[in-house]
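Shape matters. Shown next:

___
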Amino acid sequence: MAEEELPGVLILDIGGTHGVLENLAALLNKHFHLITMKEFLGNKEEMSKKIQSIFVFQCRPAIDRELLESLPNLKVIGNSGVGVDHFDLKMISSFGVKVTNTPHAVADPTADMGMALMLASARRLVEGNVLN
């Protein structure tokens, strides 16, 4: 599938402090034409027609009315986390846009960390490490 045929997805950036992780961007790039916020803002008229989805990573980019009004072909906003409480769902749905998230993405790592903390606490591993 050529890049022009792939649906456009708006992301804040690739890498850096708040951008999508590079390995995740590589995966997204197989299925979407990635458009960074900088590219979008640099050529809103052309880019706004290509963007059909927004990938929100670490609560960025912020979804507000102005952004939604500038994306006439937007169909879905995908959040790379468990919750959607940082979205104004009523406003977003008024544009006919769906919101999705990844509710089970961090379930196993969270359970692993919880078990590790309980074992460390029960066996006083942190204290033992400090004493050495």
About this structure: DSSP finds seven helices and five strands in the chain.
